[in-house]
What does this fold into?
Amino acid sequence: MRVCLMIEGQEDVTWDDWLALARVCEECGLEGLFRSDHYASVFGVAGRGALDAWATLAALAARTERIRLGSLVSPATFRHPSALAKAVVTADHVSGGRVELGLGAGWNETEHAVYGFPFPERSVRLELLAEQLEIVHRQWTEDAFDFQGRHYRLEGCRALPKPVQDPHPPLLVGGSAGRGTLEPAVRWADEYNTLFASVETLRARRRALDAACERGGRDPATLAFSLMTTCVVGADEAELRRRAAGVISATAAGGDAEAFVADHRATGVVGTVEDVVERLAELEAAGVERVFLQHLDHRDTAMVELIGREVVPAV
It folds into this structure.
């Protein structure tokens, strides 16, 4: 199992916080550091800051040496695909070939209104996603091309330089295994990422992904399947509950640590080190090849150290 850290960057994560998180990921053996792409708190907490996702990732690319970096996921509603493709290529060059792009349809209507981004109905957002995936992929891999879709038009696009990674930076599509995300993923993506799912749901989503590959004439083994989910790990039960209380505070969710742990065991990676190692084995058996651990109390770097020291070597 490949293990990455995922940070909700819109929840007041400062540049110093990013540097600390990147440092501990590099030193403790995690595969990568990924971040959400939002401009406002998804927990509705007023006054929280959000550094731009791709500016942050490019900056981290210059300050790291080993870990992979990427978005999980960038909404198709935020940026023109040509500009997004160029931003990712820039970070790819800065990092020496360590970035990945996650794309999704977007969901947070409130932040779109606040920042003035159009938020069309879901069917249109899925059309935007499909066109963006094609444009980004072709901009990275083709010498010159034209594109005329419902939402975008490119004429003689020859984007240089090409990415460092050959054939291109990995493309991830985020979704819940509906056809609107599965079908463009089968055509253009390298990985399908789903979120907050039980083992039974993951098995069903993996079957849906395999079926979509078969319909699209693609070998399912060539399209990786990954999970993003909440993670809280403690060396013992007391530390686990202390960390759960920290997550409750960070998310302004209310409630107590005991209830949080009980509620998140079915869909999260929550427990002692032994529990988490067992859980990751269950996820792997369900078809998950990579896990992105959503670390909500982002200033608790000691938990990341624990994951690197005790969990990663065991999986």
Q: What stands out?
A: The radius of gyration is 19 Å.
